[in-house]
Amino acid sequence: MNQQGDSPNNNNNYQDYRDDEIDLMELFVIMWQGKWLIVACTVLATLVGGGWLSLQKDVYSVALQYQSLTALESRSLFVEPEEFSELSELSELSGRLITDKEFQASVLDRSLSAKVKSPGRKSKVYGVTVETVSPDGMAEQLNTLVKAASKAAALNLIEGKRTALDRDIAAFEAQLQSEFVLEAESLARAELQKELILMRVQRATMDTVGDVEGINVVKWAFDPKKPVSPKRHLVMALSVVLGGMIGVFAVFIRKGVRSYRARSVD
User: Fold this and answer.
1) Dihedral sign from CA coordinates of 101, 106, 149, 127
2) Most buried of the four, 12, 84, 105, 141, by CB within 10 Å?
3) 226-246: b (≥16 Cβ within 10 Å) or e
4) Distance separating alpha carbons of residues 73 and 202, to the nearest angstrom
5) Could you tell me the strand order of the sheet in which 114-117 lies?
C-alpha cells in the first residue's frame, strides 16, 4: 500500500527532474548554436578593453607617514605639559602646508598633487600620498616637502611663543616699575625679578633655536616600482566576462526574435 501511495509522488518528482534536464539541455543547445556570436562579442569586448588600456598612462603612487611629536621630542619647542594639544595642531598645520601650492612653490621646482589623510580613532598616523605619471625623483621631492613643512610649522609655533613671551616680559617690567611693587617688601620684589630673569633666559634660548621638527616621520617615501593604475589584468578579465555575457544575451535575443517570427508566419 505504501509503495502504491508513494508512486505518484515519485513519478511527479521524476517528471520535474526530466523537465529541468530538458530545459538545461535546450539552453545549452541554444548557446552552442550561437557560439560564434558569443566568441565574437567576447573578442570585441577584449579588443575594446585593450584599446582603452593602450590610451591610459601608468599612474604611480608615492606615500609617506608621520605622527605628532611625543612629550620628550617636543622639548626643543618649549611646549609645556598643559600645552600638549599644540602638538596635534602642529601636525594639522604641517598637513596644510604640504598641500599648499604656494608653499610647494617656495620649496620645490614643481607642484605636487599631495593628499593628506588624517588619522582615525584608533590610529595616530597621518598619511601623505602623491599620484603621478612621472615617478622619477618623486619620493625625494615629497620627503623634501614634508621636511620643509615640519620645520616651518615648528618655527611658526616658536615664533608665536616668542611673541607671547615678549608681551609677558614687558608686562613684568612694567609691574616692577609700578609704585605698588616699589613700595612692596624686598622678598616679593625679588620673586618678581627672579621670574623675569627666567623669562629673559627662555627668550634668549628661543633666539638660538636652529633646526627643529614639528612632526615625527615614521615612514619616508620611496620610489615606486609598480603602477597603481590602471589595473590591466583586472580590466582585461572584466572585458572577457562582460563580452561573454553580452554574447549570451545576444544569442537569446536572436532566438526569441526567430521564434516570434516563426509563430507570426504560422
Assistant:
1) positive
2) 141
3) ebeeeeeeebeeebeebbbeb
4) 18
5) 114-117, 125-132, 60-68, 215-219
Domains with residue ranges and CATH for the chain:
2-56+230-265 (no CATH), 60-219 (3.30.1890.10)
Kindly tell me the burial class for residue 160, based on how many C-beta atoms sit within 10 Å of its own C-beta (0-12, 13-18, 19 or more).
exposed
> 214 near 94, Cβ under 8 Å?
yes
pTM score = 0.71
Task: Tell me which DSSP letter residue 122 carries.
Answer: S
Scan for cell 617690567, then name that residue. 173
Instruction: Work out the end-to-end distance of the chain between its first and last CA atoms, rounded to an integer number of angstroms.
Output: 49
Q: Which three cell numbers stand for residue 80?
A: 609645556
Written as nine digits, the cell of 128 is 601623505
What backbone phi and psi angles, to 5 degrees, belong to 63? -130, 150
| Ordered per-residue pLDDT tens for the chain, 266 residues | 444 445 555 555 544 544 445 477 888 888 888 889 999 999 999 999 999 999 999 999 999 999 988 877 777 777 776 667 788 888 999 999 999 999 999 998 888 889 999 888 777 899 999 998 888 889 999 999 999 999 999 888 888 888 888 888 888 777 777 655 555 556 666 777 788 888 888 878 777 776 788 899 999 999 998 999 999 999 999 999 999 999 999 998 988 888 878 777 76
Under 8 Å CB-to-CB from 85, ≥6 apart: which residues? none
Amino acid type, 227: P
Any residues with CB less than 8 A from the CB of 52 and at least 6 apart, and which?
Answer: 235
